[in-house]
Amino acid sequence: MKAGVRALGIAESYSDETSRLAGAVVRASRVVDGFVFGRCAVGGSDATDAVCGMVDRLGREDVRYLLAAGIAPAWFNVLDLPEIADRTDLPVVSVTFESSPGLEGAIREAFDDPETVRDRLSTYRAQPDRRAVSVNDETVYVRAVGLGDAEAADVVRAFTPEGGRPEPLRVARLAARARDAE
After folding, report:
1. Over the range 30-48, which residues count as b (16 or more CB within 10 Å of their CB) and which as e?
2. What is the pLDDT of residues 108-141, one digit of tens each?
3. Per its UniProt record, what InterPro entries does this chain match (predicted)?
4. Where in the chain are the domains?
């Protein structure tokens, strides 16, 4: 991948009722090239809109990929990856860092309201399956919309200089935590 290719990584830090989202534009050469911030409700259903709003506010035509840290930030505020890809015109790659049986059971346990459970499960089930990707002797789990599995794996590897966390997500997580500490 060319050194100047840019990805927007989105990660969160939350406490209480609000999750602070941070977006970091990072080049494949590891140069940080911009930031954008947003919020979504902990336990809410506004994360997809928040991410799309961040991309709109950023206004960067040179960003080629959107990487999200996970699929359910802010206590199961489930991201709708196909909707994000459609609204932003960017390929979207969700990266998680642990193997799991999925979130269906956890969503059922977290919410008492049957309609809330139904809506979240519907969004969650509409997402692409996770695929294990080997990166620098570590394994991450990737869901991709707007690009094939092989290209998604190549993108994750190209933006991960060491360890298993892609640089746009690492920098975004640091920015979100710093912003949350205000």
Report:
1. eeebebbebbbbbebbebb
2. 999 999 999 999 999 999 999 999 999 999 999 9
3. Endo_dU (IPR002802)
4. 6-180
Residue 7: is its pLDDT beyond 80? yes
Give the Cα separation of 156 and 32 in Å (integer): 16
**Cα dist from 68 to 10, 73, 115, whole Å:** 5, 9, 26
Q: How far is CA 128 from CA 71, 81, 121, 142, in A?
A: 11, 8, 13, 9
Q: How large is the angle between the packed helices 81-88 and 47-58, nearest 10 degrees? A: 20
Phi-psi region of 163 (alpha: psi -120 to 50; beta: other; left: phi over 0): left
Q: What is the pTM of this model?
A: 0.96
The two tokens of residue 116 are 């809330």
Class of domain 6-180: alpha beta
pLDDT in tens, 9-67: 999 998 778 899 999 999 999 999 999 999 999 999 999 999 999 999 999 999 999 99
- Both tokens assigned to 35: 């930031």
What is d(CA 9, CA 162) in angstroms, rounded to the nearest whole number?
A: 16
